[in-house]
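Notebook entry, structure prediction.
Reason for the run: the old model in the group folder had no record of what sequence produced it. Starting over properly, with the input documented here first.
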Amino acid sequence: MTARIAIVTTVELPEPDGDEQLLLPHLQEAELAAWDDPEVDWSRFDVAIIRSTWNYTERLDEFLAWAARTAEVTTLMNPLPTLLWNTDKRYLADLADRDLPVVPTTFVAPGDEWDGDLSGMVVVKPSVGAGSAGARLFRHQPSAAREHMAALHGQGKVAMVQPYLEQVDTVGETAMVYLGGRFSHAARKAAILSKEQTNSTGLYADEEISEYTPSEQERALADRVVATLPPLAYARVDLLPTEDGPVILELELAEPSLFLHTSGGAPERAAEAFRALLP
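New structure, fully documented this time:
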């Protein structure tokens, strides 16, 4: 069968990621293609679905230029306007403006004068990043937090500051996965920043992921978020627990892991959603 769907990855990934290994047997119309491989003819695909392009964070301008070119010759999913908005976590301010509960976040660009409080437990990370790259937890270490912010600014990056919500250490983080606009499954992610990190791929931090049944509050919030979005191939809403209910940590629309291994039938549901994108 001639491939009609490109599952977009990167040449830097040494082997297909776990989602792709589970997905491809159920999606015979698809093949892997690397966004940073200049030999790929994207016009031969009916749809290009961005998946494991995890090196884009250090090459964002190049990646978005590729996405713009590709969108001219095939259907790109998720689409270019979504990528332009979602590859920088300043989108969290937009979600807050929609009266959605998000982790309180301050964005500090290089050159900005900001003398906010960094004396508690805070996370400082770049606004463009994936897999916890560049994210650090500081426990009552304001000087070290400012040094990390300065280091991010020295790299030309916008820094973001968030309080560390300690319930994640005992409860974990919830990932709500939607395929073709429909809720598919949820996964529980163990805390990363408060533990020693490992990185087996060189592109993202290793995570402890398990099957999870979301609460009614988590499902309701994630449904609210997805209802504000255009038609997409996939979405992942990452939630953190608080005493007042779940809040949004991230909304992943560019290249999220879908944790297909955590739910029976998830690879088949992903294949069905992706196949439905064909003309």
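Summary: Residues 106-164 form a domain with the Dna Ligase; domain 1 fold (CATH 3.30.1490.20).
The old model has been moved to the deprecated folder.
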